[in-house]
Design goal:
Blueprint lengths: L5 E5 L3 H13 L3 E6 L2 H7 L4 E7 L7 H8 L4 E8 L5 H8 L4 E5 L4 H11 L30 H11 L4 H8 L3 H15 L4 H11 L9 H7 L13
Parallel strand pairs: 1-2, 1-3, 3-4, 4-5
Length: 234
């Protein structure tokens, strides 16, 4: 059995802390530390954590200073949640060449869990206005250029809904082994390592049924519609 992912949470809002903690627990992840600032995190976090989440509610008045403090916290990758078009803290982390992900604060609970799992493996994920299109530095292919056929798009949609191979096999009336082979072929075509990464691509790109759109269209696909998913507070 694999070890649960460990997460360090840095957030000044108690409501955010509570809801994020519940979302991560529901996904089988552990919050090893929850603090209000990086100074406290640097003192309290002893064992290295897989992912850190920083909720940028103050819009990083001094992003460079915060990035310097974050460097003292033993975290493999940071997720920066913010509700502005950009975050000075995230920009400072990128300028330093540090792993960091940029996401909106209204990310759904389910999507947040998927994001943490992906951030543990991928150094840079960007969703929203700051970078327009999600960038996976270690992936050679993306969902928008994979040229999936209809069956693969349908399979990807089922995976993004969290269905197991057994459930998919029952739903489309085929054997579980057949589903396993189709899933392996799909992951190879997408250039991802596992079902979680494929599901995240599908959920965030919102492009089931889409072929290669223009850059402007693609940018819009990555802006999750608020009426499509419950927000973090639902």
């Amino acid at each position: 059995m694999s070890k649960p992912l460990s997460v360090v949470l840095v957030c000044q809002g108690s409501l955010f802390c509570e809801m994020i903690g519940k979302a991560l627990k529901a996904e089988g992840m552990t919050v090893s530390a929850s603090t209000r600032n990086f100074q406290v995190a640097a003192k309290t976090v002893v064992n290295p954590a897989d992912v850190g989440i920083y909720v940028d509610t103050h819009h990083s008045a001094d992003g460079e200073q915060l990035a310097a403090m974050a460097a003292n916290v033993p975290v493999a990758n940071w997720i920066v949640m913010h509700d502005e078009n950009d975050s000075d803290f995230y920009s400072a982390m990128v300028a330093r060449g540090k792993p960091a992900c940029s996401v909106p604060t209204d990310l759904s609970c389910e999507a947040l869990g998927h994001l943490v799992a992906l951030a543990a493996e991928v150094p840079r994920i960007c969703i929203g206005e700051q970078n327009g299109i999600i960038r996976y530095q270690s992936r050679s292919k993306a969902i928008l250029t994979a040229k999936l056929d209809r069956g693969q798009k349908e399979l990807l949609q089922l995976i993004s809904q969290g269905m197991s191979n057994k459930e998919i096999a029952r739903g489309i009336a085929c054997t579980e082994n057949t589903v396993k082979m189709r899933v392996r072929a799909l992951l190879t075509k997408l250039g991802v390592a596992n079902r979680t990464q494929a599901g995240v691509l599908a959920a965030w790109a919102e492009c089931i049924g889409c072929s290669q759109p223009s850059e402007a269209q693609a940018s819009g696909l990555y802006r999750r519609r608020k009426d499509d998913q419950a927000s973090l507070f639902n």
